[in-house]
Design a protein that fits this description.
By secondary structure, this protein is mostly helical. It has helices at residues 5-18, 22-38, 43-58, 67-88. The protein has one domain (5-88). The chain is 73% helix and 0% strand.
């Protein structure tokens, strides 16, 4: 059975929540994006994955999570914003 991008997103969000450090969060995001690249996922699907994952993270509330989880969520939002910005940037600008 093949993994869908939604499955990939859910797994990544759960791993972000459970990460013990910001370094681990960054590695999880880098690895997820690299996995998409290695699977030769189309650019528009990668952009959609980034948007959906970012949107999912935006729905979380600080009141519902412990301090480490909330820090992980906040940091991952920033990382996905950087990725969104780089996707939207014209080729050769970055």
């Amino acid at each position: 059975m093949s993994i869908t991008l939604d499955d990939h997103m859910c797994r990544l969000v759960n791993e972000i929540l459970m990460a013990s450090s910001l370094e681990e969060v960054k590695k999880l995001i880098i690895n997820a994006m690299e996995s998409l690249r290695l699977r030769k996922v189309h650019d528009h699907a990668v952009a959609r994955f980034v948007e959906k994952t970012s949107g999912s993270l935006e729905k979380f509330s600080a009141a519902d999570h412990n301090m480490q989880q909330w820090t992980n969520i906040y940091y991952s939002r920033l990382e996905f914003q950087k990725i969104r910005d780089s996707i939207k940037a014209p080729k050769g600008v970055l």
